């Protein structure tokens, strides 16, 4: 089956990014905003399976720019080359494309598309195969951060996947940056699945999967602070753990938070702003929001 995608993009002042995201979001299946020039310019990017009505989009953008008293931003509307997916589903999900990541099960007989990072993750007892809006949003966030974040192997340069589930985000980080990743979950089954998936993806030497109670887990403290922390959990635990996340995130480090509905975004965001983190991007997938935060 061939899937045709379209991309809508425009660069706008930071203060108006949310307004333009709402303006183009009505014409798209997914929309994200991301900082491209610190404290100045943000990229508003949307994708859709339907060919956008460019004339309507341009008119909407022009009206909004005039209402805000700013220069009309340039609008890009372009088709994304179609991707040939496998035509059958096995154990719950077909291959999924999320930015540079190509998530597939062991049943996938074809090659990983050129220029993509393959993530072999079969549907299993632990959460995370890439099809859920929160997991997909996290992968898109890592795709964007891959262009600007450079984790390393030294102190304060590593990656932490808090609440790793199937380990899909730990796998993505390990394959993107080829650096050690600490993956922690309170569920022993999730730890087992993550370790197995790391072996299948040939990154077992990079992924340390261990069970424990969040940031109190000894291995988490041992390798802190981190250049990048991912946490695809739930809104309330994310807000409650904000002080611990801030203590374990290196200066200039980024955090990717997911598992929250759009209506829960402000609660989670305010909890982290109180710890000195600031919003660097957001991705909305249906009802789900992924936040990208940065510590100054």
Give an overview in words.
It is a single chain. With 296 residues, the chain is an alpha/beta fold. The chain has 2 domains: 2-82, Alpha-Beta Plaits; 147-295, Vaccinia Virus protein VP39 (Rossmann fold, 3-Layer(aba) Sandwich). The protein contains 9 helices and 14 strands. The protein has helices at residues 17-25, 54-68, 133-145, 168-177, 188-200, 218-223, 235-240, 242-248, 265-273, and strands spanning 2-13, 30-37, 41-48, 76-84, 96-98, 101-104, 117-120, 158-162, 181-185, 207-211, 226-232, 249-261, 277-285, 288-295. The strands form 2 sheets. It has an 11-stranded mixed beta sheet with strand order 4-1-3-2-13-14-12-11-8-9-10, with helices on both faces. Helix 4 links the parallel strand 8 (158-162) and strand 9. It starts with a strand and ends with a strand.
Compact description:
With 296 residues, the protein is of the alpha/beta class. It contains 9 helices and 14 strands. The protein starts with a strand and ends with a strand.
